[in-house]
Design goal:
Elements (H helix, E strand, L loop, with lengths): L1 H15 L7 H21 E6 L2 E6 H4 L7 H4 L2 H22 L3 H13 L2 H17 L4 H12 L3 H11 L1 H11 L2 H19 L9 H17 L6 H20 L23 H16 L1 H8 L2 H35 L11 H32 L5 E2 L2 H21 L11 H17 L1 E2 L3
Antiparallel strand pairs: 1-2, 3-4
């Protein structure tokens, strides 16, 4: 109880210092979007033990009607939209203060990618332990891949952040045209993907689609985007396009990847994600004015500050908590996994499972935050822009592989040491070669 009061008091102290011009709605949307991702992952995981055989099923695969849930829980567009708003403010502030690009970028890199290091180290350790215990390699691969898959977006997001000086300049010069152009390129990417053999071109949609949504955040931050009537019209039109694309076009209903599907709307991103993002953004901006008034309440804003203080650790560790909790049940309580996934009884138990994951998450959170403080990104240094970009891209490459394949590989102890090492080398190298920023 004392610790809880202490956390609330610290959050209240930070909340009291909030500048009056800060858009608190941005912070709320960041917290809500990440919370939706966490909840969605906890719901769709469908472990089961049938006849003594353990399986890690995917709800969207075994119960296709549940794919409609992804229209609620796929909220990455909101995160990139909010990111555009925040990065626009941050870069403008850096320019005003005369902060060098290299220092600004490194501070963003350490905040985004540094906290992933303890998570990678944990799964590398579990992989070595599994090797000595002679556990099936597939078990480590699946467990680590599910746990590390959330890091894919950090890799893409950092690359988009890396180009903020350019995209911000494009916004100032072209305005909304700088939003429309990448959207048009995304349309071209899908046309090429579906109608030619050059499917590799579709992978550029990671940057076209998410970059366009990020660019839209600039428009919001500059007051060029919003208002109740225009936002609702945007939501209605975009929502209609989403229905048309998934019901009459070549796109699947699910807005996240489904194991065994011919292709997904996310790998690489495709047009339904644009339609979804614009629908979500339209609805959220229509609510902006009353919600911002609500956030002016001291207790509501303090709660928002408190949640934002640990929402990223929750995002990074929530799948690991889920996998380790499931592993514990397989080991000691296999009977709790005997209910057939997707059945009515299984759905009735879902809230209980979510509460269990949440309880374990909150009990473990102090440890995760301590690990991030001790083993995470550290403080920014005076590195060159080239060094930050080089090691940042190396970290992103490692995270992309880990998100797709997990830590398992053909190296020593059955691990992919190259993918494991790249993020760690990036953080260590930047800490060793850079000079501390002088006050």
């Amino acid at each position: 109880m004392t610790e809880q009061k202490g956390m609330w008091a610290r959050a209240a102290a930070i909340a009291e210092q909030t500048p009056i011009e800060r858009n608190r709605y941005v912070d709320l949307l960041r917290a809500l979007s990440i919370s939706a991702v966490v909840l969605g992952h906890w719901i769709i995981a469908a472990p089961a033990t049938v006849g003594g055989i353990v399986s890690m099923d995917h709800l969207l695969q075994i119960q296709p009607p549940a794919q409609w849930l992804t229209w609620l829980f796929q909220v990455m567009p909101v995160f990139f939209f909010v990111g555009g708003y925040s990065n626009g403010v941050s870069w403008d502030s850096a320019q005003t203060k005369g902060t060098k690009y290299s220092f600004w970028l490194e501070s963003r890199l350490r905040r985004l990618l540094g906290p992933v290091i303890p998570l990678i180290l944990l799964w590398a350790s579990l992989g070595i332990l599994g090797f000595y215990l002679d556990l099936p390699r597939q078990m480590i691969q699946i467990g680590s891949q599910i746990s590390l898959v959330p890091t894919w977006f950090l890799a893409i997001y950092f690359i988009i952040v890396m180009f903020v000086p350019i995209t911000r300049a494009l916004w100032r010069k072209l305005g909304l045209l700088s939003v429309i152009l990448p959207f048009c390129l995304a349309v071209a990417g899908d046309i090429v993907f579906f109608n030619t053999e050059a499917k590799w071109f579709g992978w550029f949609n990671y940057f076209f689609i998410w970059g366009a949504v990020h660019q839209l955040g600039y428009a919001w931050q500059q007051g060029r985007f919003g208002g109740v009537a225009p936002s609702l019209c945007l939501a209605i039109v975009s929502g209609s396009f989403l229905v048309l694309l998934t019901q009459f076009g070549p796109y699947p209903i699910s807005l996240i990847g489904v194991p065994g599907a011919d292709f997904s709307n996310t790998t690489p991103p495709k047009l339904p994600l644009i339609a979804l993002g614009l629908t979500q953004i339209g609805l959220l901006l229509a609510l902006e004015k009353p919600v911002r008034q609500w956030l002016s309440n001291a207790k509501v804003w303090t709660a928002t500050v408190l949640i934002n203080g640990f929402i990223m650790p929750i995002f990074l560790w929530h799948s690991t908590v889920m996998i380790l909790t499931i592993g514990f049940c397989i080991w000691l309580l296999p009977v709790v996994l005997s209910v057939a996934p997707g059945s009515s009884v299984w759905w009735a138990y879902r809230p209980i499972w979510v509460l269990v994951y949440f309880a374990v998450m909150m009990l473990s959170l102090p440890l995760f935050m301590w690990l991030e403080k001790k083993l995470g990104g550290g403080s920014s240094k005076h590195n060159t822009g080239f060094a930050v970009i080089l090691f940042g891209l190396g970290m992103c490459g490692g995270l992309a592989v880990l998100a797709g394949l997990g830590v398992a590989g053909k190296g020593a102890f059955g691990l992919n040491w190259l993918a494991i090492s790249l993020p760690i080398i990036g953080v260590v190298a930047l800490s060793m070669i850079g000079k501390r920023k002088k006050a």
